[in-house]
Amino acid sequence: MTSVARFDRAKRPTYVPSLELVPEVLAGSRLAIARMISRAEGNYAEATAALAEIYKHTGKAHIIGITGVPGAGKSTLVASLIKALTLEGHKVGVVAIDPSSPFSGGAILGDRVRMNDAAEANQAFVRSMATRGHLGGLAPSTLQAVDVLDAAGYSPIIIETVGVGQDEVEIVTAAHTVVVLSAPGLGDDIQAIKAGILEIADIHVVSKADKPEAAATVAAIKGMLALGGGTTHSTWGSPVLAVSSVSGEHMESLQATLRNHWKHLQDSGEFAARERNNCRTRIFNMARHLFQQQFDAGANDLEQHLQAVVRRESDPRTAANVLLGWNQER
């Protein structure tokens, strides 16, 4: 098979069919990986069969979610983890989710420069993706990008979410290990309650460990966990760590805790349950996406039923049943 990079630099690259990219992705070609993720993100119909084939080669990577309130230092922590994990010999992949630009719809890169520098120096693969208005802290094609990296042999794969709020905890159905990052000195004991993210954390990390406020924030989070605010779906006791992403202080402890949680999932049998729940959520999310596409394709029918509901000649449930082709009794 001709290499994916089949182009003369003086000419525009030729379009390679997505199915032809699959062997290159499995071989670890960075160009093929980038192209396949772009087609997943662009929702190319032509890439559907290729992504389905790629999915058959997934399920090997440890997926780590990094989330927390805005400004906690997630990108800095990810950059530090890239360096530390690659030094251990890991082939690290990162999918970094950014808020969408209100003008172009593209990702607002923020402080991705530091992360990309770390990736380039350590042969990691980093991809920024825009939320495109999707709530939940992730982008619609996040997990397809993770699939591509998984099939290409990357592990662990880190998903960095946008800053989460009360309802933006979708990362818990995407990752095997969820790290919730808090910054010291910002009243994080109150923030954590408001954000509703205490219960999704497998590991709590307080950034800027060199600050005197860090110890107080660690104590506050431990206090909340002692009051029953932690996870209830696991026998794993969520540890609380203070680290400094800049100096590297306590990063080894975080790496060890990540390894321990991955081993705990395997040994306890929780991995199978978590995988089942994650796959179930993916099916439901894809079903909702396909329903939306169906509605968009039948815009005239949708408008007709919409007007009927507005005029109170129909009701939302009846209109939905008709649009889905279901019987009224459903």
UniProtKB/TrEMBL annotation:
The question of whether GTP-binding is a record keyword is answered with yes
Instruction: Spell out the SMART domains in the cross-references.
Output: AAA
Keyword Ribonucleoprotein attributed: no
Per UniProt, the keywords (alphabetical) are: Chaperone, GTP-binding, Hydrolase, Nucleotide-binding
In terms of domain of life, where is this protein from? Bacteria
Q: Which InterPro entries match?
A: AAA+_ATPase (IPR003593), GTPase/Isobutyryl-CoA_mutase (IPR052040), GTPase_ArgK (IPR005129), P-loop_NTPase (IPR027417)
* Annotated AAA+ ATPase domain residues: 60-204
Which NCBIfam families does the entry link to?
A: lao (TIGR00750)
Return the similarity comment.
Belongs to the SIMIBI class G3E GTPase family. ArgK/MeaB subfamily.
What is this protein identified as?
Methylmalonyl Co-A mutase-associated GTPase MeaB
